[in-house]
Amino acid sequence: MRDDFDAMTILAFDTATPATSVALALDDGRLLSRRHDPAPGERPGHQELLLGFVVALLEEAGVELPAVDRIAVGVGPGTFTGLRIGVATARGLAHAHDLPLVAVSTLHALAAQAAAPPAAADQAAGEHPAATADQAAAPPAAGEPAATGDQAAAGQAPADGEAPPALLAVLDARRGEAFAAAWPHAAAADPRAAPLLAPAALSPEALAAAVAELPAASLAVGDGALRFREQLQAAGAVVPADGSSLHRVDAVAHCRLGAALEPLARDEVVPTYLRLPDAELALRRRGERE
């Protein structure tokens, strides 16, 4: 598969969700990727798999790590342990090889990949192309079942081939909450674009209220969109079918966004948590009782 990353070689990865996603965009236009999605009941494989995926992609591409032009890392929001592993690994590799480092919002990457144009070239080994927002709105191919009422929004979906007005990225934040943010479809691929909904940790009720303020038939993607499908659809959003690849965080999008971002000092690249960790909340509750 070929893509335009300004003739840069970019190593990107994200461990904000249970998945481990790594991508390598090469300056000759090739794009390679690896991912692991834990099975139900299986623990995330961030610690065990991340560096192995990095090494495997570099070997497949015939590239040494010092030849990489920059590293792009997903900084969340997401799981505390996963974010710490990803950010620490990125900072360590950047320090060891004196490489520029960029921080990519996991929510923005999720929205950007839904806005990306359809993949236009051959598939390289290990790639996982995602459907686009336009493809998600298209009618099913012959022989494929049409989306049911549970797989589409309660409101009116965009017309065939019409892009949704906004892209809402929703991650399952556990504790009965969602991490969410939204961007206009036309600007979702711009890492500097202002969001329609700033990243936030929201209850299901607050999420529904926020979606109700977005343009009708906005496309909601991510594992949080699956968990809170009922609330999102009732508020007027469109949620792709459960098996859609639009719901997966893919480091390929981090390569695209990371190519346009300005590198930061390594100690400025930190996780975006959006809320306190469980341990700190427990300490605060204990202190209040005492």
UniProtKB/TrEMBL annotation:
The keyword Metal-binding applies. It is an enzyme of class 2 (transferase). GO terms for molecular function: metal ion binding; tRNA N(6)-L-threonylcarbamoyladenine synthase activity. GO terms for cellular component: cytosol. Keywords: Acyltransferase, Metal-binding, Transferase, tRNA processing. InterPro entries: ATPase_NBD (IPR043129), Gcp-like_dom (IPR000905), KAE1/TsaD (IPR017861), T6A_TsaB (IPR022496). One of its GO terms (biological process) is tRNA threonylcarbamoyladenosine modification. Residues 120-160 are annotated as: Disordered. It catalyses: L-threonylcarbamoyladenylate + adenosine(37) in tRNA = N(6)-L-threonylcarbamoyladenosine(37) in tRNA + AMP + H(+). The keyword Transferase applies. Residues 46-116 form the Gcp-like domain. This is N(6)-L-threonylcarbamoyladenine synthase. It comes from Conexibacter arvalis.
